[in-house]
Write the structure tokens for this entry.
Amino acid sequence: MAEVSLHGIAKSFGATEILRDIDLSVEDGEFVVFVGPSGCGKSTLLRIIAGLETVSAGEIRIGGRRVNEMQPAERKIAMVFQSYALYPHMSVYKNMAFGLKFAKTNKAEVDRRVRQAADALKLSALLDRKPRELSGGQRQRVAIGRAIVREPSVFLFDEPLSNLDAALRVNTRLEIAKLHRDLGATMIYVTHDQVEAMTLASKIVVLNQGRIEQVGAPLELYRRPRNLFVAGFIGSPRMNFIKGQVRSATEKDAVIAFAGSEAVIEGDPGRLKSGDDVTIGFRPEHMASAGPGATVLEGRVDAVEHLGEASLVYMTLPTGEDLIVRASGEDPVKSGDRFAAHVPVSALHVFDEAGQSVRIRNEGL
Amino acid sequence: MSVNVRPSRIAVHIALILYAMLAVGPIVLILINAFKTRRAIFADPLGFPDARTFTTIGFDRVFANSDFGLYFLNSLTVTVVSLGLIVLIGAMAAWALTEYRFRGNTILSLYLAIGIMVPIRLGSVSILRMMVELDLVNTLTALILVYVAQGLPLAILILGEFIQQIPKDLRDAARCDGVSEYRIFGSIILPLIRPAIATVAVFTMVPIWNDLWFPLILAPGGGKQTVTLGVQQFIGQYVTDWNAVLASLTLAIAPVLVLYLLFSRYLVRGLTAGAVK
């Protein structure tokens, strides 16, 4: 079994702190995605798990064993790199067999594993080619094949799709998902693309400035972001944020004023008090052009992006705040128009002054 | 049909042709005069040998009057062994200096850079004294040691640059594959820097083969002379046997030429790879 657990991991390069206080456990067979903006430390964390970087503090366990002092190969991990990292002077076959040669696997077994992986990845016809004769997608499949033949207990992916074009990226994403289903191995995947994270992960870890912001299932992060950072990072286009103020807070409900309107949210406002400054968040796709019981925000349309099934309306409120609304593709709205966006109470997220989410309603998610 | 040739390109080619003639001229002069009679050498130094002037007397005399074969073997041994050591030690040192961060890394790199700037001949007296103490005078070992020291700094610089261009991911991928550091060096780094090794080989081989200075002061006798030193015996204070001098020089050029042709494909690639990137 190959669960991975990290306890109090910290990493500094000289005086620069890259990671601090990382505690995380990955169950056996889970598909965990590390996501975050560039420079948040996600790749470093992956390299720490791989054994390519040492830690400044903390303990890494894979399959219950402490692996801090172990070489990458001893940890039974395999890594797929963004640049593919294929050995340029070796054929596809040799690329895949190279690692096994040193693991004292007998020749017949090496051959069997390489051919099996090549079959699964549709590489059988390419085994004698050199990497430079392959397309980007094929190279990435070879890199994945090289990981598979080692039969590792943990697969590590470092932005494997970033160098591929859009269509190929979707295909390869599906292949990786299928691979996970077929092998049932633990996989840890790093990306800055939240769509990849949402579609692949059974668990997402959002990192920011070397800290874990939130860990959870994709929909959980989407529906209940713990703070402003996660709320803004997960979801596309990003969540709208508007400054607001608590007008009144009782045990049963809270009245919050924002953008010249008020919304009454039923439920226990918890630590919020009357007069507190808050940030209100709501997603573009949860706003409708009309609907009952909703706060109406009126403004001027700056630009409209037509996606076909929907249109993204960029508008400015009289208070000067910008909003994005995902309207129906049928909506005839154009730039310069006045536009009324309806925000249902159920779509509102409330964040306190520190940027932490405050749950008022009991949605029962 | 008109071929569009820019004037600037013509100028470049004229310059290149002139330079090539300048560089090849002396070699051609040696080659054609090596096969001429002494009289013809002085009467018409630029003329090709014809039926009347053709002779191989120079070569005959070289083989008859001297241990030319031995000198040749000495030169070959010194050059090949030095070259092998420079490439091997140089590549390993370059790999260590670029790949691993350790105490003194920068100091060591700087120290080696000084070795490129300061000519090793400045230390001739100390080197000779050292070789005398070590009892290495008139041995090929003395020459090899000096040449390895002379060639290493530049070799490490050039190979280090190339190793740095190999993506870091490749080494990491190999480490994930469970490949030992020695194997990474041998199976991945070395094959990928072959063009650089060819460049280094040519750059270090030619000065070693042609060197007269160190053979003269470190191994002038005892049957350990190199070809360049061997040629000197035909140049006397009063009489110079030009036939023999030119013949032995012709023979001395041959191996360098052959090696250059072997390496030239890589050499051009090696020289441009660094420039373009």
The two ends of chain B are 37 Å apart (CA to CA). Chain B touches chain A at residues 167, 169-170, 172-180, 183, 187-188, 191-192 (CB under 8 Å).
